[in-house]
């Protein structure tokens, strides 16, 4: 039977769009499902503030009335303006191992993008950098994280056969927690703290950190990530949304802020216990027991031995001056106390030498690679 592409119009169809990923990967031991309610909010034009500067359409592929693939087409006008490009993004792409299906999905996004005046397609990317991005090309037998995409090995093969080329690669590391803060690391930390009159700030109240530095954390992220691939600055609406969304659920022991003599935020490190196993057990649902698995992973003593590095950002004026060493000199004893064995770096651009240099004093293992593809729209 021929492949038929249908645009998602109704809420019932959107639910099918979200659920297709769960069905395709339900028996896969490495895939980590998103929370269903989070996905509903992400795709909701009224709830996701990224629609202030994005437009999107969602498509399902059918064969003989059975869903065999999905894809989102996204145009981030802010990113296009920043990088002076006319690119349509594809994201949330899944398909069976059938070239006819993958081709039909991507051709649909290409056509939609061309109708909107775009001349190239890139992805997989989301609305913003807070969405998972990059197609896995190495590390298919490694457990995914809540912040990344898992896909079958045939996905990138299809992309290459369809004429897509590498646009950017991200690499990911296991970073093993040392028995003590490395001596060279400690010396750099002490030196940079004295030289630049920096202070380490810790909080025990989510409301207090939100009041003092909630917006500043994400404004710092805008500054630090500004030159990175595809980045578009977070809007005021997004910052407000993310402050409310993320700060209440993090373990504040694993949050370190660095300020200068003027009490200006110059560095931030935020990490949390891995939720990968908990999300697998929850199967994308908070009810009936999903909330329990997530709460157990976050707050109970017998938590995962793995932690996720969610956000490491340093103000551009202070980069390459040892501020990262100061962050980890504070965080490593916390990781030791909580019994973590290693951290997942999550994606780092392979050309971002500044980021990778911060791991030189640690035992590391580069275990995953993911890729953004691109193609001219003819």
Describe the protein's architecture and organization.
This protein is α+β, with helices and mostly antiparallel strands and 378 residues long. Helices cover 36% and strands 26% of the residues. The protein has helices at 11-24, 36-43, 77-83, 99-115, 154-161, 183-195, 206-225, 236-246, 276-282, 290-299, 323-337, 353-357; strands at 4-7, 54-63, 66-76, 87-95, 120-123, 135-138, 165-176, 199-201, 255-259, 265-273, 306-314, 342-344, 348-349, 364-376. Strands 1, 2, 3, 4, 5, 6, 7, 8, 9, 10, 11, 12, 13 and 14 form a 14-stranded mixed sheet that branches. α4 links the parallel β4 and β5. α1 (11-24) packs across α2, α6 (183-195) crosses α11 and α9 (276-282) runs antiparallel to α10 (290-299). The protein is globular. The model has no long low-confidence stretch (mean pLDDT 92).
Concise summary:
The protein has 378 residues and is of the alpha+beta class. Helices cover 36% and strands 26% of the residues.
Secondary structure topology:
Layout: E1 4-7, H1 11-24, H2 36-43, E2 54-63, E3 66-76, H3 77-83, E4 87-95, H4 99-115, E5 120-123, E6 135-138, H5 154-161, E7 165-176, H6 183-195, E8 199-201, H7 206-225, H8 236-246, E9 255-259, E10 265-273, H9 276-282, H10 290-299, E11 306-314, H11 323-337, E12 342-344, E13 348-349, H12 353-357, E14 364-376
Parallel strand pairs: 4-5, 11-12
Antiparallel strand pairs: 1-2, 2-3, 3-4, 5-14, 6-14, 7-12, 7-13, 7-14, 8-9, 9-10, 10-11
Helix pairs in contact: 1-2, 6-11, 7-8, 9-10
């Amino acid at each position: 039977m021929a492949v038929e592409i249908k645009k998602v119009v109704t809420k019932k169809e959107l639910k099918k769009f979200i659920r297709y990923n769960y069905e395709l990967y339900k028996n896969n031991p490495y895939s980590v499902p998103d929370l269903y309610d989070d996905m509903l909010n992400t795709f909701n034009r009224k709830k996701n503030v990224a629609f202030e500067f994005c437009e999107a359409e969602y498509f399902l592929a059918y064969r003989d009335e059975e869903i065999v693939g999905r894809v989102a087409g996204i145009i981030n006008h802010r990113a296009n303006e920043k990088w002076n490009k006319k690119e349509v993004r594809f994201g949330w792409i899944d398909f069976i191992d059938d070239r006819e299906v993958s081709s039909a999905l991507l051709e649909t996004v290409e056509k939609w993008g061309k109708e909107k005046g775009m001349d190239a397609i890139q992805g997989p990317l989301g609305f913003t950098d807070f969405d998972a991005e990059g197609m896995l090309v190495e590390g298919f037998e490694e457990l995914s994280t809540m912040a990344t995409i898992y896909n079958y090995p045939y996905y990138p093969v299809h992309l290459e056969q369809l004429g897509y080329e590498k646009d950017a690669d991200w690499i990911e590391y296991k970073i093993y927690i040392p028995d003590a803060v490395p001596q060279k690391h400690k010396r750099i930390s002490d030196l940079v703290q004295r030289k630049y009159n920096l202070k380490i700030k810790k909080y025990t109240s989510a409301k207090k950190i939100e009041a003092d530095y909630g917006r500043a954390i994400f404004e710092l992220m805008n500054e630090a990530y500004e030159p990175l691939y595809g980045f578009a600055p977070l809007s005021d609406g997004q910052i407000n949304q993310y402050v409310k969304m993320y700060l209440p659920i993090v373990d504040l022991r694993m949050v370190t802020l660095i300020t200068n003599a003027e009490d200006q935020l110059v560095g931030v490190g935020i990490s949390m216990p891995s939720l990968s196993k908990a999300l697998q057990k929850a199967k994308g649902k908070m009810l009936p027991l999903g909330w329990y698995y997530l709460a157990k992973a976050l707050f109970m003593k017998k938590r995962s031995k793995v932690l996720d590095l969610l956000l490491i950002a340093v103000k551009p004026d202070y980069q390459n001056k040892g501020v990262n060493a100061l962050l980890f000199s504070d965080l490593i004893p916390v990781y030791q106390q909580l019994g973590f064995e290693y951290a997942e770096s999550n994606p780092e651009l392979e050309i971002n030498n500044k980021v990778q240099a911060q791991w030189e004093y640690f035992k590391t293992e580069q275990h995953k690679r993911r890729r953004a593809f691109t193609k001219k729209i003819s």
